[in-house]
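Researcher: Please generate the 3D structure of the following complex. Treat every line as part of one assembly.
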Amino acid sequence: MKKQAAYAAFVVLLLAAAAYAAFFIAPTDARQGVVYRIIFLHVPCAETGLLSFFVCFVGNVAYVLKRDAKWDWLGVSAAEVGLAFTTACLVTGPIWAKPVWGIWWTWDARLTSTAVLWLLYVAYLLLRSLIEEPERRALLSALFGIFAFIDVPLVFGSIRWWRTQHPQPVIMGGPGSGLDPTMKAVLFFCWAPMLALMVLLMQSRYRLEAMRGDLDVVRREMETA
Amino acid sequence: MGLGLLSNTLVLLGKELRTELRSRELLTTTVIFILLVMVLFSFTFDPSSSDARRFGAGLLWLAFLFAASLMLQPCFLREQTNDTLSALRLAVSDPFAILLAKLAANTLFLLATELLMLPVFAVLYNVPVFPVFGQLLLVFFLGSLGVSVAGTALSAISAQARMRELLLPLLLLPLLTPVLVASTQVTAGLLDVQPFVQWKGVGFLAVFDLVFLTALWLFGEYLLEE
Amino acid sequence: MKNLNSVFAAYLVAWGIFFVYYLTVARRAAALREELEKLKNSLPRNK
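Model: Done. Output below.
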């Protein structure tokens, strides 16, 4: 418990440091003024979300092949954490867009793809909630998770292709496109706390799932006793 | 091995087709559903010829997707209610044959309903489809194949969960986004005043089909586990 | 600095999402730990 508390404190410190860098070290953007600083939150959230979903995918494949419950615990933890990061990304996007474009939402390629990604993993969690038997739930959600993840590049690719047919304002430019070197450095630095946060959240969620597994075992022991 | 898989698949495909052709309930209800969606869509925008060409492709594919997410429900539910899945598994050497047969049948059913509805769409929305019929057939086939591959797999999954009627569309529709995007784009190009083929879109569909067929081949046997 | 509010809002909302998630997980974990202890204690008695 002490270890986790210490790690949590460390993560909070990193987040504070990142915020400081985002507000005070990165220079002001000539065109957008202060509001572009949301990028230092929005982009790391998006990328950490994707990384979490990749971890979920690894857990899913491992479960299907090895049938060890630990991989299922990893899968669901990574999916939930990934969804948290993706939600943060989808919320900070419009908060940036409103002052800059005057509209809350634009169907630009990346936001649209992220919305589909969000829906895919919400479906993953929904599927899990609708299957009671733990091994069935683990297997079927792992299989859906595998299909969902291999779909991700197809989703991003097809939507980007579609959007280049009909050019739209691109939210945030590309990562690093036209960013001055200090901004790039700050952006890179801001990724570290997100990674650390991802690990913290996954760890606690994993422990919760592991406890659930233990509870099932104890309950079964009681029934046979 | 290859020949065994093919012959098993063909036998099972025959069974699927015979079952459906006997009652035709799946085809009938799907056709009526698509017709219904087409009529309802006409209330949502002014169906002048230029708008119909712009929105028609999207409406068509949305109708197909919604219809498919309903049509694919009985795919594995049928086996569940009659407990025939274990018998099927014993009858074939490679469980992939079961999946292949079902997805082939679903593709054919989808394609049949789409081709039936195409002239209706052309008439209702004043969009000429005959000049580009061959190309439309290609995109319908590739799109329906994509829908069936994903849909057959997810039908096997949702059949084992609660609230399966609502669950299947929720699982299927986000997954099929690339199919919707690519099919709509290609179809829109074909329905344009100056029709053209978006080969990149066709390529996307082919890639989607290939990727998911491969995934089904790799992981399909786990879908059919008891 | 006219859009500073938006930047603050974005940071608050994002951190809020993570904080709320962490809290809910921690709370469920505490409840489960309690239940686990209770069950473990009742087990030797049953045997």
